[in-house]
Amino acid sequence: MELSSIKDAFDRVSKKQKLSSSKTQEVIDQVGREIEQTLEKLQSSQDAASGVDQKTFLTELKSKINEIGPINQLEGSQKELNVGLSKYTKLLEKSFISDISKAYRNVEFDIHTVNQIVATHFYRQGLSDLGDCFINEAHEPEGAALKSSFLEMYRILEAVKSRNLEPALAWVAANRAQLLQNGSNLELKLHRLQFVEILQKRGRNDALKYAREHLPPFASGHMDDIQKLMACLLWVGRLDCSPYAEILSPSHWEKLAEELTRQFCSLLGQSYESPLSIAMAAGVQGLPTLLKLANVMAAKQQEWQAMKQLPVPLDLGREFQFHSIFVCPVSRDQATEENPPMLMPCSHVLCKQSIVKLSKSSTRTFKCPYCPLEATVAQCRQLYF
After folding, report:
1. Contact of 346 with 368, CB cutoff 8 Å
2. How far is Cα 203 from Cα 325, in angstroms, rounded to an integer?
3. Boundaries of each CTLH domain copy (predicted)?
4. Partners of residue 189 on adjacent β-strands
5. pLDDT at residue 23 in the model
6. 320 vs 80, 91, 117, 323, CA distance in Å?
7. Greatest CA separation found in the chain?
8. 216 phi/psi in degrees, rounded to 5
9. Is residue 83 located within the same domain as residue 162?
10. b/e sequence 86-100, b meaning 16+ C-beta within 10 Å
11. Is the Cβ–Cβ distance between 172 and 253 less than 8 Å?
12. What CATH number does residue 326 fall under?
């Protein structure tokens, strides 16, 4: 069942819960008002010493509460809510399979590599104690190889969060050659933010002094950025209402932290995202399809564990595509090791099985489905992505 159906069911239960809560509060307020009025009458009778029997007021109160019937009113609304909750719970149990082991495939993993990925994930999150504990229990001393590097990255990022750019500037200066080779202008971004911070906190003179000391190396390729910073000097103390107010946006700091992480990981030969986080996120997206497939195959008494390729598409989104994917324009099948892409003499590309079907023979010529040229199977060459 699609998530939209579950959301609709949740909205209906939520609406009933709000109605029940409103009805309950209404009944409580009604009973409360009757009690308050009776207390006022009792207090008045005592002050006036009229000799009126106070039991009369209590009897009237009991009679009015019986007329209100709070229990009957609350039971009705509560019963509707309980029915809705019961249906919603059954829908969740039907839609979400708690036993996800059905989607498990017995795939051979390199335990050493997996352990390193887990340990590295802890270190890049700044959880050094947890990473040390893991590699000790897993007997993977090599997993701590990147510990010091990721601890440095974590320390720099924590400083950036507190608007302290000195550690980041020191790291960039130490790795300037490699960053320039990567085409990164991270150093200029750091100096730009530092300039704005100095202008805001210490004034025009200190900001101008900082600009003269650090910005000249970037003048040839980033003059527009430097001119904008110089114009900010005219708006000191009121930069937030100037034409350059956008330079104060917190998004610059967020993008800086992202760029810093990306470049740091690049210099370490690591991916920007944690491989463990990517694997978990991809698994969460693909799990519903795999569970459904496992249930269908089990109902047909078929074994899907031995399949080399899933019989259904598993769409994970472009963020999980890390290599080129070729889909045959004729059969619409994705290329595999057994059915690789083949380059024809006319430069069109089809999968091997499509070419074999078109040729009907290894020596017979066949016409390309996209142009007038003809070819044989022997003339086609396998492509490697």
Report:
1. yes
2. 55
3. 149-206
4. none
5. 86
6. 45, 31, 17, 9
7. 121
8. -55, -40
9. no
10. eebeebeeeeebeee
11. no
12. 3.30.40.10
Q: Is the pTM of this model over 0.85?
A: no
Structural domain including 220 reads 146-268
Using alpha carbons only, how large is the chain's radius of gyration in Å?
36
Please state, in angstroms and rounded to a whole number, the distance separating the CA atoms of residues 207 and 194: 9
Q: b or e along 21-44 (b: 16 or more beta carbons within 10 Å of the residue's beta carbon)?
A: eebbeebeeeeeebeeebeebeee
Using pLDDT thresholds of 50, 70 and 90, give the confidence band for residue 2.
Answer: low
Handedness of CA 319, 324, 329, 335 (dihedral sign): negative
What is the CA 345 to chain-centroid distance, rounded? 45
Among residues 73, 94, 115, the one where a domain terminates is 94
SS (H, E, C) the chain: CCHHHHHHHHHHHHHHHHHHHHHHHHHHHHHHHHHHHHHHHHHHHHHHCCCCCHHHHHHHHHHHHHHHCHHHHHHHHHHHHHHHHHHHHHHHHHHCCCCHHHHCCCCCCCHHHHHHHHHHHHHHCCCHHHHHHHHHHCCCHHHHCCHHHHHHHHHHHHHHHCCCCHHHHHHHHHCHHHHHHCCCCHHHHHHHHHHHHHHHHCCHHHHHHHHHHHCHHHCCCCHHHHHHHHHHHHHCCCHHHCCCHHHHCCHHHHHHHHHHHHHHHHHHCCCCCCHHHHHHHHHHHHHHHHHHHHHHHHHCCCCCCCCCCCCCCCCCCHHHCCCCCCECCCCCCECCCCCCEEECCCCCEEEHHHHHHHHCCCCCCEECCCCCCEECHHHCEECCC
113-139 tens-digit pLDDT: 888 889 989 988 888 899 889 989 988
pLDDT tens per residue, range 5-54? 888 888 888 888 888 888 888 888 888 888 888 888 888 776 655 556 67
Identify which of 92, 146, 75 has the alpha carbon closest to the alpha carbon of residue 116.
Answer: 146
For the chain, the domain total comes to 3
Sheet containing strand 341-343, edge to edge, reads 349-351, 341-343, 381-382
Write b or e for each residue in 227-253: b if 16 or more Cβ atoms lie within 10 A of its Cβ, otherwise e: eebeebbebeeebeebeeeebeeeeee
In a domain, 136, yes or no: no
Question: In degrees rounded to 5, what are phi and psi of residue 334?
Answer: -75, 140
Report if residue 65 sits inside a domain: yes
